[in-house]
Amino acid sequence: MTVTDYAPEIIVRTGSAVHTTCPYCGVGCGVLIEHSVTDGLQLRGDPDHPANFGRLCSKGTRLLETIGTDERLLQPSILGRSADWDEALEHVATSLARIRDEHGPDAIAFYVSGQLLTEDYYVANKLMKGFIGSANIDTNSRLCMSSAVAAHKRAFGEDIVANCYADIELADLVILVGSNFAWCHPVLYQRLTAARADHGTQIIVIDPRRTATCEDADQHLPIQPGTDAWLWNGLLAHLSGHGFISSDTLPAHHGLSDAIALAQNDTPDSRSTAKRCGLTELQVQTFFERFAQTAKVLTIFSQGINQSSSGVDKGNAIINCHLATNRLGREGAGAFSITGQPNAMGGREVGGLANTLAAHMDFDQADRVGRFWNAPEIARQPGLKAVDMFEAVRNGSIKAVWVMATNPAASMPDANAVREALANCPLVIVSDCVARTDTLDFAHVRLPATGWGEKDGTVTNSERRISRQRAFLASAGLARADWWIITEVARRMGFAQAFPFQSAAEIFLEYAALTNFENNGARALNLAGLLRGGVPSYDTLKPVQWPIPLDEDSAQTRPSLADLAEAPIGTPRLLGDGRFYHADGRAHLVPITPRGPANTLAAGEMALLTGRIRDHWHTLTRTGRSPTLSQHIDEPVLAMHPVDATRLGVEEADLADITSAWGTGIARVVISDEVREGDVFLPMHWSRTTSLSGAVDGLVKPAVDPISGQPEFKHTPVRITRSLVDWQGVFMGGNELPHDRTLVHATRARGPEGYRWKLAGRGSPQAFREAVNTQLGPDVMSARYADEHSGHQAWMWYAQSRVIALAFVGPSTRSLPSVTEMAALMSTTIETGRAHRLLAGVLSDPGTDAGPIVCSCFGVGRNTLARAIEEGLASDVGELGHHTRAGTNCGSCRPELRKLLRNLQTTPVP
Ligand code: SF4
Fold first, then answer.
1. pLDDT class of 910 with cuts at 50, 70, 90
2. How far is Cα 624 from Cα 690, in angstroms, rounded to an integer?
3. Which atom of ligand 1 is nearest to the CA of 58?
4. Which of 121, 205, 274, 842 is the most buried (most CB within 10 A)?
């Protein structure tokens, strides 16, 4: 049987609701899915979920746009040939067993993902470490927060996030470090701005870029990239020198005196700190004093800290300041690592990283895990971390790699080397829910996995809260749950006894039992309390924060009565009671000697920083399917300071060539003083599948933190020059780009009419026109209109009165008609003879374009908002909302509305 299509089958009963979670960021918002005959599927934020209390951001709001039928992987295949599950699973199992027999267990690797559910992660880890006998399983969370994991373990003795989201509302000062909170964790940002409106929470942002998050900040420290550890060391020296560290704390914490002494060496005062960090002394002084004078300080840190060749030290430098002043694990006070992915935490808990075992045990406890699993061959040594793992694939020592729910050919640093590794690997297995990714291009075996809406299991968010993801759709085609695929392979490899699982619930209960196994209070991660109700309790599980002790008497850290009332068996905060998980029971401060980025900049080089944008997620395999989310920023844009743009002779909307020692790329220039002089910023989302030359991670250096192995995505030396192209344009007409060698740049975005491509080429655009003719075939008619004065041309292809494709090209994109006008033509019924008039009308009359979408919920464009401001209709965010509806639903665009008001008004914005 060949599966080519499917219609999503809704399994939520009409009149009932499914409580599930959003699959994007680490906030872990609860989502409610309802179905009615009249309205079909409906989605809204779950008012009862403690992460979001009903809020959703722009990405969460548009989740139903991403569950469509196109580009789903529906059937297993082997070497491009469709197969049934039995054949595919047998092929995978026998191939892995053969490679293990011939080359040993370390010749096999799994590369998994924070998109997997905890149950998927658990069985993948159990198979690899417990039964194949190698620890070569690593996760894309390595790229996201492994430095925070290492920092936690060094400081606390275990990977523990001490605080909870409620502390955002309880803090008097929130410091956001290396986090564009407004775009990357929008619902938490909404909770923060609501708290600020309610009781005046102070906000400090420490970030080289002036991001959207700065719109609501009291202070922005535009720190020189890579210098954070100097700033926090400087703060520690200041706190010590000005009597803010209690003499009781010194003996309570291990290493405090040494940490202070080292900090005082290099950054004894605000002046030396400012010099190190590229800030003014006043900026640093103000920051130091605000921290020192405020008891309830919550420091939230994210990828800007973690994605560094010294990310672990930076994390510990932050934690040191909180430990030294007893501002940790307390109401409104703590150092809070926020994860990027929906289940990065779940992966950490079950041992998804190559250097940990399951249930927060390390390799010195391999014997214990081996006894629990009855796995005498369990791996005894850490495996290879992501960058080293793909290097081992490249040099041939790893001969089989199984990639699950991630896209390393696009998302790894030095992605071109990863592509080379996958191209030369004897066996590449990819499990995914989508049919097209850069990584799937290299797969010998493709295994269709269930996607969001079809999956059933648990995730853990950034505050240790375990929530259920529940299915409301039947599996697409032949897709199966990841845990089922892994379990079936394990059974076929001869490990059936250890993999008896018939459901995600059974896996979770085994995992929960492992957390309690020979624990005796040595490990905070304990889910024994969830074992009581068995599978029925799992099915009805409400969001709960671990530890979840078996009963109150065995609580490792007893929650307060108020906490117990709020979350009967969960634990909102840890460590605030002075109980740590090192053998000596103390917190360990780590003396930090700060280091700069791995590569210094040579003359003419700039520092490339990469990161997320508001409405997209990872490599666009889901958000890229949403027409709404694709309109906010619809192509890779390179943000550059005006001084650099002048120096390089680059203008707004030009294309720029970006060259590093690892690769090349092209992106559209946005000139902005929101980036520092000498830095450029490029979004991480575009891959080769979605952009001919805008894939970012081929440019990024593979330097990693020596402890965590996390790559340094925030500081790659690059050179920028203006791209020399002869024409640019827009093409609408299908998912596939016509093959034309003269194209040098092409990026696709989803519009209501289908995919649209922004193009640039060298030579004559006629080559592209001919490529489209060839692709569409002889039965399709075409019409052309040219404006000799502007040099623009328009082509239309049509058949049987229907427009099939359109292209508008010219010397630059600046004077092309709006894509909205072009898209309107795609739904036009055409009669021969009208084509030229239609093309001429659009080309000569750009009309009133709404501009790039700012408010995704209501499709409100920048130009519409600008008109409302300039005509005096709106002078604040509320009035803008009243006149345009922008910002009145999910709230994700409110920082941009404030910025627009600030830029377009002469009077101050309230
Ligand atoms: Fe999803 Fe947005 Fe909530 Fe993150 S903040 S979990 S992306 S709805």
1. very low
2. 9
3. 2
4. 121
Tell me how crowded residue 902 is: count the other CB atoms within 10 A of its CB.
11
Number of Cβ atoms within 10 Å of the Cβ of 261: 12
Gyration radius (Cα) of the chain, Å? 27
Kind and range of the H or E element at 263? Answer: helix 256-266
Inter-axis angle of helices 311-324 and 146-156, nearest 10:
40
Q: How far apart are CA 886 and CA 884, in angstroms?
A: 5
In 3D space, the residue among 109, 103, 113, 114 whose CA is nearest the CA of residue 136 turns out to be: 109
For the chain, give me the number of helices (H) and strands (E)? Answer: 30, 32
Residues 6+ apart with CB under 8 A from 675: 208, 209, 210, 609, 639, 640, 641, 681
24 C-alpha to ligand 1 centroid (Å): 6
pLDDT in the model for residue 551: 59
Which atom of ligand 1 sits closest to the CA of residue 187?
A: 5
What is the tens place of the pLDDT at every residue in 418-471? Answer: 999 999 999 999 999 999 999 999 999 999 999 999 999 999 999 999 999 999
User: Ligand 1 centroid vs 59 CA: distance in angstroms?
Assistant: 6
User: For residue 187, how far is its CA from the centre of ligand 1 (angstroms)?
Assistant: 6
CA of 56 to the centre of ligand 1 (A): 6
* Residue of minimum CA distance from atom 2 in ligand 1: 57
User: What pTM does this model have?
Assistant: 0.94
* Residue 178 region by backbone torsions, left for phi larger than 0, else alpha for psi between -120 and 50, else beta: left
Amino acid at 21: T
Atom from ligand 1 closest to the CA of residue 24: 7
pLDDT, position 396: 97
Report CA-CA distances (Å) from 651 to 144, 334, 899. 33, 44, 22
Is 128 within 8 Å of 134 (Cβ atoms)? yes
For residues 368 and 387, give the distance between their C-alpha atoms in angstroms, rounded to a whole number.
29
Ligand 1 atom closest to Cα of 56?
8
Using a 6 Å CB cutoff, which residues line ligand 1?
22, 24-25, 27-29, 52, 56-57, 59-60, 185-187
Question: How far away, in angstroms, is 60 Cα from ligand 1 center?
Answer: 5
Of 34, 30, 116, the C-alpha closest to 468 is 30
Structure tokens at 159: 């990977």
Which ligand 1 atom is at minimum distance from the Cα of 617? 7
CB 126 within 8 A of CB 373: yes
